[in-house]
Design brief:
23% of the residues lie in helices and 23% in strands. It has a six-stranded antiparallel β-sheet with strand order 10-11-12-18-14-15, with no helix packed on it. A five-stranded antiparallel β-sheet has the order 1-2-8-4-5, covered by helices on one side. The chain has a four-stranded mixed β-sheet with strand order 7-6-3-9, with no helix packed on it. A hairpin with a 5-residue loop joins strand 4 and strand 5. Helix 1 packs across helix 5. The termini are far apart.
């Protein structure tokens, strides 16, 4: 039965719009709940991720990560101390509870304050700050920070720098617990129960999306209408399952700019009014940064147009000088499982290949990366990325501090060519 047949409900299209808007917020709330209630990290407490580990989707394991949930109130600010880092990529990414990037603290964006105290305060408030602190205004009382320090060829030095990040948080900050949301996974999305949490989620922080008020009004109308009304709830659930889910899944297949089996979203981190882009990024690449920091090319199709198969052998052949010529910092290629976008265990514990790899050149000067469940004959181990035999997978090529050809959309990674043995 169409939802419009139930008195007082918005149209089916409006229900789909409202669900897709709310879905991105649910994905961030799910991560908050995991971090606080499962990982028990605590507010205003740094989690120094061990190398090769990150409990969120689509991590880059070529950096030393540290992460924290920042919580402030009108009377209290929280201060992060950033060590001086020279000669390797780093950034302190600050993200709101919708997945929108607030700021990146580094020498490129804050040349006068690339290190030292960085204080987070609620926008519009004037709590005391340490002398000389860089003030970052947060749109709501909570935000996520992720700092990345490039490993290069000296992981121990990167870890030492990682451990020099510290947080000072005053006593007495009023902190709300993680919002109550329905349990769901990437393979089992929430139905109408998403709207049960909708009203509380809308109150957690303002949304930077220009059209947010219109979407929020729809969410409120649906949440209030289905409260205590089984018929209305069932109608909304039917629309979510038969129309909203397919709309989202269809969007993941046609996402962003596509070429050679790769897709890229240049709106990552700051989405404007692109609800679907924000959903897809929060779903498969939560905490994606803005393109001036990193461009993410997601590869899921082979050159034959079929989904990548972990039992097959693929070659990515980069022209001479690439992808190094596309970055001012570094590049990395990482393999993930689908649909959960986590790294895949393998016998050699290799999850990616990056700028530091020694890739033997082909006769024409190009370099090849091979993806296969077993190392192909005559392929150096340094250019082999193990794939999950019997399962699908996804690739993510990251360009950190990309140069103009990539930023302007003029460059794309080469096709992911299915092969049996090296030519």
């Amino acid at each position: 039965m169409p939802a419009t047949d139930v008195t007082g409900l918005p149209s089916d299209d409006e229900i789909v719009d409202a669900y897709l808007y709310l879905f991105g917020r649910l994905l961030v709330a799910r991560q908050e709940k995991y971090d606080i209630d499962v990982e028990h990290v605590g507010w205003n407490t740094i989690k120094y991720n061990p190398l090769g580990s990150a409990e969120f989707v689509n991590p880059n394991l070529d950096v030393a990560y540290l992460e924290a949930w920042i919580a402030v109130d009108p009377k209290h600010a929280v201060t992060l101390h950033v060590p001086e880092i020279v000669g390797r990529y780093y950034t302190v990414q600050v993200v709101d509870v919708w997945g929108e990037v607030i700021a990146n603290v580094n020498e490129r964006n804050f040349p006068e304050h690339p290190s030292g105290p960085v204080s987070f305060r609620l926008a519009g408030t004037t709590p005391p700050l340490p002398d000389g602190a860089l003030a970052i205004d947060l749109p709501g009382p909570k935000a996520k920070i992720l700092a990345r320090v490039e490993l290069k060829t000296s992981p121990d030095e990167a870890v030492a720098l990682q451990r020099q990040f510290t947080i000072d948080a005053p006593a007495g900050i009023e902190i709300a617990p993680p919002p109550a949301i329905p349990d769901f996974s990437n393979a089992a999305l929430p139905g109408a129960e998403a709207f049960t949490a909708g009203l509380d989620l809308l109150e957690t922080a303002p949304d930077a999306m220009p059209d947010a008020p219109r979407y929020a009004e729809l969410v409120r109308a649906i949440a209030e209408r289905i409260a205590g009304d089984d018929e209305a709830r069932a109608a909304v659930d039917e629309v979510v399952r038969t129309k909203a889910w397919p709309a989202f899944l269809a969007g993941t297949k046609g996402f962003g700019t596509q070429r050679n089996g790769w897709s890229v979203a240049f709106s990552a981190g700051r989405f404007g009014n692109d609800v679907l882009a924000r959903d897809i990024v929060d779903y498969g690449g939560l905490w994606a940064n803005t393109v001036d920091e990193a461009i993410y090319y997601v590869g899921q199709l082979g050159s034959d147009g079929t989904l990548l198969d972990g039992s097959a052998t693929y070659e990515i052949r980069f022209p001479k000088g690439e992808p190094a010529a596309l970055v001012d910092a570094f590049w990395s290629l990482t393999l993930y499982s689908v649909p959960d976008y986590r790294v895949v265990p393998n016998p050699i514990d290799r999850y990616g290949i990056n700028s530091e790899a020694v890739l033997p050149p082909n006769d024409d000067g190009s370099v090849s990366i091979w993806i296969a469940p077993e190392r192909p004959a005559d392929v150096a181990e340094s250019q082999w990325l193990p794939s999950p035999k019997g399962g699908g997978f996804s690739l993510n090529l990251r360009l950190y501090v990309a140069r103009k050809p990539a930023l302007a959309g003029e460059w794309f990674p080469p096709p992911i060519t299915r092969a049996v043995t090296p030519a």
